[in-house]
Automatic annotation (TrEMBL):
<keyword id="KW-0547">Nucleotide-binding</keyword>
<protein>
    <submittedName>
        <fullName>ATP-binding cassette domain-containing protein</fullName>
    </submittedName>
</protein>
<dbReference type="InterPro" id="IPR050319">
    <property type="entry name" value="ABC_transp_ATP-bind"/>
</dbReference>
<dbReference type="GO" id="GO:0005524">
    <property type="term" value="F:ATP binding"/>
</dbReference>
<feature type="domain" description="ABC transporter">
    <location>
        <begin position="5"/>
        <end position="250"/>
    </location>
</feature>
<dbReference type="InterPro" id="IPR003439">
    <property type="entry name" value="ABC_transporter-like_ATP-bd"/>
</dbReference>
<dbReference type="InterPro" id="IPR003593">
    <property type="entry name" value="AAA+_ATPase"/>
</dbReference>
<keyword id="KW-0067">ATP-binding</keyword>
<keyword id="KW-0813">Transport</keyword>
<dbReference type="InterPro" id="IPR027417">
    <property type="entry name" value="P-loop_NTPase"/>
</dbReference>
<dbReference type="Pfam" id="PF00005">
    <property type="entry name" value="ABC_tran"/>
</dbReference>
Length: 260
């Protein structure tokens, strides 16, 4: 069976302007290659500045790679075909509060992707909005709420609903649990795992939280300063890390667990 997503030698070079009196800094993402199957979760881990979020932006089309190619179901994704990407690869951001427009209702937030990307009638869009709210554990009545009327956990559920509403094949989540308190975080993790089982989604999860990574991921990509230093099955990475960098990350996680 062919993979859902194939990333082949994708690289990226970005010049970061640091201000008038500082020299520009060049960030280089070295060629990245991996595959993702339907119903599988791949976690991308590494310290800040390792290139995790840049890779996420390349996958969803927010940035264009310098070289390489990305294939979905064997078909090469074209960067000038925004609709192709919007329908199939969706993103959940870390700060759901900032990604939700405070001036419009949740129903309007969820309706906008449908209006822009589908031929559904207003009645069909309304039905889809209510169906998606139920899917993430919200009520149809929540479509009339505004952002400030929700808890942090509910805001993240709406962010997930917005990602799901176009029936994508892949969800890319960049630190989706970092801003949540532990109890809400646990509920949201369980929700995402249930949605993945029920919908057969491919899931790419970017995180510093190795506890959650170990709990939900099938495979791991370890990044350092724009390079993939190691990749493999989750259990293998945690139990038999090959690189010193990966070993340091795992030992730091285990030390934190022993303190708690």
């Amino acid at each position: 069976m062919s993979p859902l997503l194939s990333v082949e030698d994708v690289s990226f070079t970005h010049i970061v302007e640091n201000g008038w009196f500082q020299r520009p800094r060049k960030f280089v993402l070295s060629p990245v290659t991996f595959e993702l199957n339907a119903g599988e979760t791949m976690a991308i881990i590494g310290e800040n500045g390792s290139g995790k979020s840049i890779l996420a932006k390349l996958l969803v089309g927010a940035e264009t790679p310098t070289s390489g190619a990305i294939y979905l179901n064997g078909q090469k994704l074209k960067y000038n075909n925004i609709k192709q990407r919007c329908l199939n690869i969706r993103m959940v951001f870390q700060h759901s509060n900032e990604s939700l427009n405070p001036g419009i209702t949740l129903g309007t937030i969820l309706d906008e992707p449908l209006k822009l990307n589908t031929q559904l009638s207003p009645e069909e869009r309304q039905e889809k909005v209510e169906q998606t709210l139920r899917l993430v554990g919200m009520l149809p009545e929540h479509q009339y709420f505004y952002r400030h009327m929700l808890s942090d956990g509910q805001k993240q559920r709406i962010a997930i609903a917005r990602a799901l509403i176009l029936n994508p094949q892949i969800i890319v989540a960049d630190e989706p649990f970092a801003a949540l308190d532990p109890s809400v975080r646990s509920q949201t993790v369980n929700l995402i795992m249930k949605l993945q089982r029920d919908l057969g989604l491919g899931f790419i999860f970017i995180s510093h939280n190795l506890g959650i990574v170990r709990h939900i991921s099938d495979r791991i990509l370890v990044m350092q300063e724009g390079n993939v230093v190691e990749s493999g099955k989750t259990d293998v990475i945690f139990n038999w890390p090959k690189s010193e960098y990966t070993e340091k990350l795992v030992q730091s996680h285990q030390a934190m667990l022993s303190k708690n």
